[in-house]
Structures are given as structure tokens and as C-alpha cells.
């Protein structure tokens, strides 16, 4: 695959952003390439295009598959796997948010529940217990809100996103 300067810059920037998101630069670059590719690519195609070692690409693809961001397909008579990224941006955002929620947000809520319960009986000062409980309650509120919104039909979610801050005009100041 021949990359234009803009395609190269997209992949490089996605790699840089990946490091800020806690993802290996190469993994983010693999995802970026698959995201903009009009057709499925083999691991060899990816390695050649990005100048990465085949083993690095294999490891990166496995990580992306664990995140459910990349899927493998096969062609009849071909032993190679062909990889594609989630192409639909709404679905991509949903997959990323759900993955981060499962890996980061939910474990934090569980930890806050545990430390809040522990703090109530171990002599932790009342103001600290209160702060822990407030933190947990706020995170549970956001999580409940997210779950309610995620259950809505896609068209309703998109309408709410487009509506955005315009809602603030209808609320009391």
C-alpha cells in the first residue's frame, strides 16, 4: 500500500495519540493503517507498509483483537488472515468506550466500594470517608448515565450528541 503524506501523517499522529491513551505506538499505528485502508490487509502488508517487524505486527494485531477493534477474515484458498478495523465511527467509539469502561472505570468503582466500606470501620477520619463515598457516588452516577444512554437506539444517541450543549439553553441558569 502506498501512503500519501497525509496518510503517513494520520498514522503517525494516531501513533502519538496512542501513547497518550496508554497504547503502544506501533499498535496505534497498525490500527490507524487498518482504519484508513479501503480493503483488508495481511500482517505482511501491514509490516511492509509501516516498516515494522512481523512479530511486532502480530503482537499488535492480537492486542487490537482483544480490544475488539480488529477482526480477521480469510479468503478461500488463501492461508493468510486478512485484517480489518471497525470502520463505522459510531461503532468504533462504542467499542473503545466499552473497553475502557470495563478495564478502567468499573474496576475503579469496585475499588472505591471496597475502600469506602473498609474506611468506615478502620478509623479513617470522617471527612476522608465522606470524600471516598462522594467519589464513588459520582462515578456510579456517570456510569449509570452512560449505561442508560448506551441502551438507547443509535439514532436517538446520535440526535442527543448533535443536540449537545444546545440543551443548556433550556435549563435554568
Write structural notes for this entry.
GO terms for molecular function: DNA binding; DNA-binding transcription factor activity. Pfam families: MarR_2. This is HTH-type transcriptional regulator. Keywords: DNA-binding, Transcription, Transcription regulation. By secondary structure, the chain is mainly α. It has two domains: about 5-85, Arc Repressor Mutant, subunit A (Orthogonal Bundle); about 90-170. The protein is about 70% helix and about 5% strand. The chain has seven helices and two strands, in the order ααααββααα. It has a two-stranded antiparallel sheet with strand order 1-2. The protein is extended, with a radius of gyration of 21 Å. The relative contact order is 0.07.
Helix content: 55-70%
Assembly state: single chain
H/E series = HHHHEEHHH
Termini Cα gap: 54 Å
Determine the structural class based on helices, strands and strand pairing: mainly alpha
Keywords for this entry:
two-stranded antiparallel sheet; Arc Repressor Mutant, subunit A; WH_DNA-bd_sf; DNA binding; 2 domains; 173 residues; mainly alpha; 7 helices; single chain; 68% helix; 2 strands
Brief overview, please?
Helix content is 68%, strand content 6%. By secondary structure, it is mainly alpha-helical.
Fold blueprint:
Elements: H1 5-20, H2 25-36, H3 43-50, H4 54-66, E1 70-74, E2 81-85, H5 89-121, H6 126-151, H7 154-163
Antiparallel strand pairs: 1-2
Helix pairs in contact: 1-2, 2-4, 3-4, 5-6
